[in-house]
Each structure stands twice: as C-alpha cells, then as structure tokens.
Amino acid sequence: MKKKLVVLTGAGISAESGLKTFRDSDGLWEGYNVYDVATPEAWDRNPALVQQFYNERRKQVLEAVPNAAHLGLVALEDDFEVHVITQNIDDLHERAGSSDVTHLHGVITRSQSDLDPGLTYPIEGWEIKMGSFCELGTQLRPHVVWFGESVPMIHHAAQLCAGADVFILVGTSLAVYPAAGLVDYVPAGVPKYIIDPKIPELGRYKNIIKVEKSATEGVKEVLGLLRA
User: Do 52 and 125 fall within a single domain?
Assistant: First the structure.
C-alpha cells in the first residue's frame, strides 16, 4: 500500500506559470484593492465590475500552462497516494494531471449560483456574462470563495492532513487562515517539507525539512529526496 502524501499549495506555485495574486503588503491584486473585487459586499455594490475582474483573471488562467512544479507533484503519484490541497483558484493542478485536488477557495473555471453556492457549473470559454442565470433564476458568479465567506472544503482538507504519512507545503506564506492552520493537523512525527524562497519561523512544528527555493526547483529537490 502506498503512503499517503498530502501537498498544500499556494500562490508561489502558480506564480511560476505567470499568474499573479494579491500580496498582503499592499492589498492589491492586478491593481485592484481586493475589497473592491473579492468580497460579497463588492459583488452587491458593483457586480459588473467584479464579474469583469474575474473574467479577465479567468482568461489569464486559461492561457497559462502548468509548470515543472505541478508536473513534479503528478510524478509523485508513481510512488505515493497523493492528495493536493490548493489555496489557488486556477485549474493548473488538474491540467497537469493530478488525480486528487481539493480547492479550498473554489476554482475560477466554474460558475456558481448567486443564491446557492452548492450549484456550480462549468464555463464555456473565459466569460460569465451579466444576465446569465442559474437554474434558480439568479445571476451566475465566479465559483470563488471571497473574503468573509466560509471555506466549505476546510474540514475535508483537515482530515486529509491528519492522515498524512508525508506532508509538503509549496509556495505559501502560511499567512492566510483557515488554510494556514492545516499544518497543525499533520501528525507531529510526519516529515514536513516546506518549499518557499522565504520560509517563515516554524518553531512550533517538528520534523521540518526546509527547502528555500522556488516551487519548480524545490519540488524537483524534494522529489529526489523522497525517491532516494
């Protein structure tokens, strides 16, 4: 039986495919204040602006391609039962070939009902048009978890982490909760590979292996370590 390897990925892995995300330092995402485009209040205030913003981001996602880090995680499936948990809203893990991906914050290539977030739909092309409705008759919006909304997949993700035999964290600063708290569910004795150019202080965790490199270089190194 293969060991269970759980991977938590953040913005750093998508950045190497050319996808930008906001940074806590300035709160801007592609020049927009995140609270103007990534909250329920923003949607209520100016749905056309929010829709346009995510349509543009979706177009970027569809034009991007998976990088060596995404492909490296797929290669690990030869030796492990791999479960990817991602904070990213792109579908690059799926397009790379990962067979089990949990999206904590939704996925931009799907739409959802404005009334019932459980009603989601695939999107043809890159655009959700204003005036496109779900089966309940309300406007379709991006299938993305905004600031102030619950994270429905967090409990499933916590269960995966609690059952991990090996844990890898790639390209996240552990600054955004509740995702950052997932590391606390990983058993203390489990090896935890942390891949990021700037690894934060992780003094309270045990069995940490720091790999202070970019996602692509770091995944390559960890792949070699796990196969040694």
Answer: yes
